Every structure is written in structure tokens, then in C-alpha cells.
Amino acid sequence: xxxxxxxxxxxxxxxxxxxxxxxxxxxxxxxxxxxxxxxxxxxxxxxxxxxxxxxxxxxxxxxxxxxxxxxxxxxxxxxxxxxxxxxxxxxxxxxxxxxxxxxxxxxxxxxxxxxxxxxxxxxxxxxxxxxxxxxxxxxxxxxxxxxxxxxxxxxxxxxxxxxxxxxxxxxxxxxxxxxxxxxxxxxxxxxxxxxxxxxxxxxxxxxxxxxxxxxxxxxxxxxxxxxxxxxxxxxxxxxxxxxxxxxxxxxxxxxxxxxxxxxxxxxxxxxxxxxxxxxxxxxxxxxxxxxxxxxxxxxxxxxxxxxxxxxxxxxxxxxxxxxxxxxxxxxxxxxxxxxxxxxxxxxxxxxxxxxxxxxxxxxxxxxxxxxxxxxxxxxxxxxxxxxxxxxxxxxxxxxxxxxxxxxxxxxxxxxxxxxxxxxxxxxxxxxxxxxxxxxxxxxxxxxxxxxxxxxxxxxxxxxxxxxxxxxxxxxxxxxxxxxxxxxxxxxxxxxxxxxxxxxxxx
Length: 506
What we know:
The chain is α/β, with parallel strands linked by helices. Helices cover about 30% and strands about 25% of the residues.
């Protein structure tokens, strides 16, 4: 039985960060919606309640059935989670006189408290809330304060239940890792969740889930689908057939290179040339979400058709990872963008879906890939969007625009590799802008396309900062693109972070 912590998601932007911090301590956790606590899962060792964009007294505030776990297993409420437990027990939560945001320092720490063991007065924490607990219910006892927040942390008498109004998961809370480590110890977790144990557990789960069924896997050439393929190959072997679709939106020469690389992995791979089909479906379409859904539907239609030819295939496997889920499906009802793995699926799909990596972040997938023995060049390959260049060509997609972008992107990526910058950035690529500008080439006036270059630094894709590439490198790449790619006379560099921007432009 897999032991785990459950993180109840009340819609906070840092919920996934809590999960990352827990897993960095070799403890498996699952993030589930606030109202989906797995009450019958005997493997659950503890619960963490996340923050939320709501106030506990809002009419539409998310509420959990606290009796499912309070007093039965250890509980840690963070920010909204702490306020929810106090509010539900008869305490008072009110708007703060002023928004409590930023650095603060703990004081009046109860020295023998298990959660705060090893944390000293003066330890810096990070506050981010508009409400505060002004009165604790009976049986709730303060275990730490700050100058502005008297009830910064509490424990419920007779229970292994705590609430903190600061965020231990963020970098600016100095002893946040120590606090989370203390909670993991209180829960009695063995802290033995490693890439090797993930592989063992996942392969066993896949064998049980799939049995002798045949599976078709959507390969993209990236690390996510490649690791998913390796896991499935270990679990079901010959019952796995991989499909690699050339949608006409891949990087230059990518289809042939990827097919060759998979031949060395011992996978059964079928290549499908569907360029013209995708181009026809995308003709005249400019709206980003519509393009994503068309591309997603195109993939699914092709997979279903190819699976029908294979006979007996019952499952579609995908390399969906956790950031894809977070951005596509928000419990607050706000979708940032649809991913082809999780968006655009028909309501009545003829294949069931299996996603062995859906709870992993990108860096975790890479560690699993190394443990599986995948080639390092594949493991360290930059993320590439599922819809490919379709979301890097702003506006309508045409074969000519694809040609222009492939050539410009190839020059950029090869330049990063030759200057040993490729592995210093998280993700990079070129974007074809829907504008033309005046230029001069020789003695002639030109009116041609603009290319934007994008390179970012990140650890998991949830947040990112723009990469400060050397000016000399950018100047050389700009000149090379303008000189070699017919139809381009201007190159710009994107210096936006995520948030507020996203990594991709569409």
C-alpha cells in the first residue's frame, strides 16, 4: 500500500508548490480538490489544507468536510486552511486592518511544540492574506505569533492538528522546510519515495490497471511521453504501440530524428504523416484556444483511427504532467489555457486514457527518466508545446509560416547548443509575430515578418524568468536569421516573466 500525504486544494496558486516541497523530502503526496478527500484510502498518513483566493465567510467559499480527517490523522492548515478550521469551530476570521503581505518574524514560539521544533524566535516567514484570525475557538492554542498577527500559528488540544497563517512552502519562509519536515515526521512517513520507488509503484499500478489490454501511446519526442513510454514498456511490453504523428508543426527535421531515436529504445513506433490534414483543419483559424482544440482533436481522431487499424487497442496513453493539469483545469473555474493532452477531448471517446506521469513535475519526470536509463540528450531536452509551432505562429497557421518559423527556430536552438547555452535555460524557441515591418536590405525597401526569440529559466514551468542571454549571442543569432530566412527582416527578444506572461505566447 502506497503511503501518502493528501493536499486538499482550495484554489491557491501555491498548492502545487506545497506538493513539490513535500516530495523533495522523499514523501509521496497527492493534490486533490478540497471536496474529494479519499476517506477510504488507508494509505493516507496526513492532510494539508492549502490556501485559497476566497475568504472563509464568502458565500461561494470552498468548504471541506473536516470531520473526515480531523482528530483521526495529523492535519496542517496553511493560510486559508488554518482560517477555515478556526471558522468552522466557532472562531472569528475577519478582514485584516491592512493586507498582511510580505516578510514577518515569528515570536512567542511555544518551545515544546512538535510542529515548530528547531525553529527559533525571529525566524522569517512569508505572509499573504487579506483576512486574519481575530479569535480562536475553545481548544485552539496559540503556538507562535508575529508582531502584526497574534494567532500566526495554533494547535488544537488533544489532536495532532495545526494551523499556520503564513506560507511555509515559499522560499522566503526561512524555516519552512523544517516545519514541513516536522509535519512529515509527525505523520510517521518513511520518506522513501524516490525515482526508483516511483518506477516500481507505477509499473505495478500499470500492470494492475491495464492487465492484458493493448495500449496506444501518443509520442511527441519530448521527455514526458518518452518516460511514459519507457514505464509502459516495462509494464506491458509488446502490448504497447507508440504513435508519432507529424502534424506539420514540428521543429525542422524533427520527425525523422525522433523516429530514429526511438528505434534505439526498443519501442514499437508507427509514424503517421498528417501534415496536410492539420493544415486544412487550421485554415482560417486565428483564435489561440480554437487552434489548440483543433490540434488536440486532430491528435485524438488520428489516434483512434490508428488504434482501430491495430485492432484490440483499448487505451490511449499520454505523457500528461502536473503543470498541464493545473493550467487546464482550475477548481476556481479559471482556465489559463488548454493543453492538447487535457483539452479538446471528445465527450464520447472510444479509448480510455492512462496518464502515468500526471502527478509529476518536469524535473521529477527527468529524474525518473535517468533512473530508467534514458539517453541524457532526451532527458534534458527542452519542453516543447503539444500543439507545436501552432501556438508559436500567432494568428492563422499556413505551410509558408511554418517554413519561416522552422528555419528561424533551428538557427536559434542550434546557436544555443553551439555556444553551450542550451542546458543553461529551461526552454527556448522562436515565435512568428502577426506583424510586418519596414526594413532595408541592400538598396531595397522590404516589408516582412518579425520573429520574437524566447528563452526562460525555471524548475517546473509553473513560474519562469527570462534568460539574460549574452548580447553578442543575440546579435549574432538576429543577423543570421535575417540573412538566412527569407521573409524575416526583424528579430526581437522577449523579456517577460511568468507570471504575468506565460512561457508560450498562445
